Amino acid sequence: MQVVILAAVLIVGGYAIGTTLFAERGSGFLKPGERPPEFSLANMEGGVTSLSDYAGKPVVINFWGTFCEPCVKEMPEFERQYKKWQDKDLTILAINLSEDTLTVKNFLNRFNLSYPILRDEARKTERNFALRQYPTTFFVKADGTLMEAVVGGMTEEDIDKRIVRLLQL
Amino acid sequence: MLVPENTKCECGHHNSVGTVLCEYCGKPLHQDLQKSDEPLEMRYDGVARRSQKSNPSYIDRVWNFFSSVKIAIYLIVITFLTAMLGTIYPQESSFINNFDPSTYYRETYGTMGHLYYVLGLSHTYESWWFIGLLVMIGTSLVICSLDRVLPLYRALNKQQIRKHHQFLLRQKAVYKGTLNQDAAEWVSQYGDALKKKGYRIHREESGTALLAEKNRFSRWGPYINHIGLILFLLAIVARAIPGWQMDAYITIPDGDTVQIKDTNYYVKNEKFNVEFYADDELPEQLQGKARAKKYLTEAVMYKCVSDCGNPLKEPVLEEVKRHDIIVNSPLSHDGIKLFQFDFNLNPRLNAVNPVLEDKTTGEIYGPFYLPMKDAELHYELGPFTLDLYANYMEFALGSDGKPTTLSRDPNAPAFVFTVKGPGLHPDGEPYIYFPMQKDKVRFAQDTINRDLAERIEIRVDGMENVDFSEATTVLNVRVDRAVPYLWVGAVFSMLGLIMGSYWQHRRIWLRVDGAEVVLGAHTNKNWFGMRSDVAFGLKKTGIEVDPKSLDNGGKNA
């Protein structure tokens, strides 16, 4: 009976302590080494794109809006980086900050962007990522954990440096 | 610790290791205890605890660690002290939005605050070591109880009636005297007297020894209390199960429907109402200030029945509950409670129903429905067609001189249509429309539209054609599926406390050898009552004693 009780204690206690250790701090901003929350969002081709579609590949997740000037400035830079590193299996997912279809389409007509543009809806994904400012970019390693999160606009050099690190990791 | 040299009692009974008083006759087993004449320690009736073994294995050692009441007390004290640390600064979980703990504590409370955060005390109650302490207390509760209750149960279940003289004379209530009548008859009379006091009487076959006992059930009180505490702790631990606990906030403008995160439920705020106190209802120092008298959210809860979580389709919702939420009257459904938490009264434009006027003929077409977000792209109004080709939520001119939007909220909305119709260019002419009068003036709508402004006008006639949210409500979403189990635990715990507190286990042993009566009595508290019971029985059989004279010393409150 001792063994049964001690085993039960180990299971219940282990579960309780384990969940605190591996708990995703729901409200907190993603820290390096943590896994970004999964999302499934509409893309511009009428399909659905999920983060898990890119499991095992390095992914850059960029949140942007047409109302955010530094975001807009970054878009062509990301495009050039995307082209540059495409053969290295780099993915860039640009998530729009819950704007309406016409706004996003008009914006995209001005730029010739080839990387996937995703549509957040009612700010759900941005809330899951605990976003506070725009733009915010998450560099996710091939193993699915965060390498770095950058809040604010970046120069092309900033982006390039990080992608080089991301691909080497 | 007393180590027994021999576990066999002189009465011939073999006791297990760790036994203090012989399980059969009650005689102290240890030499030094036999020599003393102090009242006996009657805890657990002197039986060995389960964990007292001569050759403990590794598992026994773990068991023994947790079976110690001393360890249990240390654990409880450590838990209390560390729980106190969690109250120095606000916990992370008490903040709602846009809260970055890594900077908040340093900025608000300085270096001490930063230290507090770095040490992880800003989430004390969710930390692994705090939960670990609770788990250890739970383990200790289970093991301490089992270790004692099982031997105690066995000891009380097979009690020997005739006890050793040393056992009887070293109780805290003792009587010794000589009889001048038949022993068996006197014992029987004494037993009958105690029966009236609610005792259960066990007499030896010879009729010259007796055990009277009442309220044994009160001995199980502490263990039932412990079962309650264990249930309580398990319920707390169970909160870690996904979906068992939630404490979130949702912000819903009038008319909007918002999903409750991680659930299949949606909430609509049909209308938020706020009433303020009039000045004559307020004390002087508060007059002239807006003091809310009543917040009320007309809320409807929906369940998603299909296309849930499909980003390409609108979810299909089914109404499940409707409730006017006011403070302390939440909407409650399926364990989810929505409490009124906050509000703001910033209006938000949702849609307009403008008309198109042909200024050359004075003819009016429309109205047509124009929501601020995801509006239709094509409108046909009499001979005119409108094609929406751009919209801006907060219109402005960007650094490149081109129109842009400063935000995604409809603070200064603008719509650009291509208008086709009689007298207009066959490819259409652009027309910019500002639904808000202030923007129309500020951005000079008519100047931008130039000639077209002379030909047509898009405008809203009357406030009834404007749809806006007057207010936004903030609701607190709470789920705590552990609560019913906490209640069950609390009821068990209370039941155990009552059992152990308001009843006392009383026992009276007596034996007559020749004409000599020796009587000992034991209880766990209220010795005054114990002694009066003994004296009551003696009086009924013709022996007058002062209850106080039965006191044999020792601590016997």
From TrEMBL, chain B:
Instruction: Determine if Membrane is one of this entry's keywords.
Output: yes
**Which regions span the lipid bilayer?**
71-89, 128-150, 223-241, 485-503
Q: Which UniProt keywords apply?
A: Cytochrome c-type biogenesis, Membrane, Transmembrane, Transmembrane helix
**Where's the ResB-like domain?**
69-423, 437-533
What Pfam families does the record point to?
ResB
Tell me which stretches of the chain form a coiled coil.
Answer: none
Record's subcellular location:
Membrane
Superkingdom of origin: Bacteria
Topology term for the membrane? Multi-pass membrane protein
Cellular component GO terms, alphabetically? membrane
Give the GO terms filed under biological process for this record: cytochrome complex assembly
Query: What is the name of this protein?
Result: Cytochrome c biogenesis protein ResB
User: What organism is the protein native to?
Assistant: Paenibacillus agaridevorans
Upper classification of the organism: Bacteria, Bacillati, Bacillota, Bacilli, Bacillales
